[in-house]
Amino acid sequence: MASKSYFDLIVMFIVFVSLVPHLVFGSSRSHFLPNKASGSPVTRMYGICATAVTVHGYTCQEYDVTTDDGYILSGQRITAGLAEGNGLNRQPVVLQHGLFVDGMTWLMNSPQQSLAMILADNGFDVWISNLRGTRYSRRHVFLHSLHPQFWDWTWDELVTHDLQSVIEYVYGQTGQKIHYVGHSMGTLIALASLSEGLQIDKIKSAALLSPIAYLSHVTVPFSGARGPPVITSIEYNPSGVDANNYFKIVCANPALNCFDFLTAFTGKNCCLNQSIIEFYLDNEPQSTSTRNLDHFGQMTTSNDVLSKYDFEGFNILRYGQLQPPTYDLTKIPTNFPLFLSYGGQDKLSVPQDVITLLDKLKLHDKDKLKVQYIEEYAHLDFIIGVNAKDIVYNQVIQFFRSHN
Ligand SMILES: *[C@@H]1O[C@H](CO)[C@@H](O)[C@H](O)[C@H]1NC(C)=O
User: Fold this and answer.
1) Is the link from the previous residue into 333 a cis peptide, with omega within 30 of 0?
2) For the Partial AB-hydrolase lipase domain, which residue ranges apply (predicted)?
């Protein structure tokens, strides 16, 4: 009882503090909410372009996309590679990161090993997206990131707002259909989106690395006991004060190393560079919302039914029905080009769960579905493995070229 009222006090305090700007400036700014996605190139001195792309000699442009529900997402466009042949009809590719990370994950290794720069060198027009709540996407047209309402979402909203807005913006800027690469949660939101037919006319193909749709075989910690639904969603910052900078403390302990620690969460990654791990932990993990985490928890007990967030007693209020609506992945058009790559050691995209996903795609046109299984790969090998270029990215590029 005592701890509950203490929690309530903290929530009330946060709400109060974050309401102050509203009380002072009023909420009339909501009138400026765009009714569809809008965006623009911007100049940022210390963004991802400056810290991780232009230092290697690549041309990189920061851009902002305002989602239709008011979040201002930052992104990075790599417009040219180092190789010759730049400027010729470059095909746009959107890179979508996963849970607890941001777009930086595509840029951690050397340029010869990092997907974003490899794509640029292969003549693609690379657009990196950063989802709401991550380091460079913590702005909103009128909500402060300390306001609980800023965190009132799960990946359902990433499907209906962030992804749609980014796709619409990139399509508007380039006038071309888009190739998509997602990792982990970046695959989940694409699959959900494709199953709902959202923006499907603007996407040319999708490469899904460590695909996630069903989590029945996941054993990592976020699959904790099912609690009541999260009604007041707040920020969950795994490296913040609340988590006691958990990640870094574990890594500083010589008795445990970061490899072991990451292994517990992601599986036994075969091919990570020790010096990259430290860089990775300096840059990640990133915040998400508590309800989003709970949504993943719900997925672990959902008997292979992919649903929107289950508000239980509040479903009627939210959805007008007792059970949350489901995403039917068999509705993904069977002629939509899909490339799936999954690893035998992955603890988040577990092979048995990927097989459940492949079963939903069993009627897919054979020449439109390419599946790659890499026995020794775990979750992070797909984005920061030192040999991912040879094993995975070359396949992705070949796949994109054959579905132009
Ligand atoms: C590991 O990272 C270091 C520092 O970035 C780099 O010098 C080295 O070549 C990398 N090793 C491999 C195998 O990629």
Assistant:
1) no
2) 53-109
- Encode pLDDT of 338-393 as tens digits: 999 999 999 999 999 999 999 999 999 999 999 999 999 999 999 999 999 999 99
HSE-CB for 273 with a 13 A CA cutoff = 15
Predicted confidence (pLDDT) per residue in 100-135, tens digit: 899 999 999 999 999 999 999 999 999 999 999 999
Ligand 1 centroid vs 253 CA: distance in angstroms? 23
User: Whose C-alpha lies nearest to ligand 1, atom 11?
Assistant: 273
Q: For the chain, give every domain's residue range.
A: 33-402
Separation of CA 248 and ligand 1 centre (Å): 21
Q: What is the DSSP string of 193-262?
A: HHHTTTTGGGEEEEEEES--S--TT--SGGG----S--SS--EE-TTSTTTTTHHHHHHH-TTS-HHHHH
Which of the residues 114, 137, 184, 205 is marked catalytic? Answer: 184
Work out the burial of residue 335: count CB atoms within 10 Å of its CB; fewer than 13 is exposed, 13-18 middle, 19 or more buried.
exposed
Pocket test for ligand 1, best of 259, 384, 386 (most atoms within 8 A of CB): 386
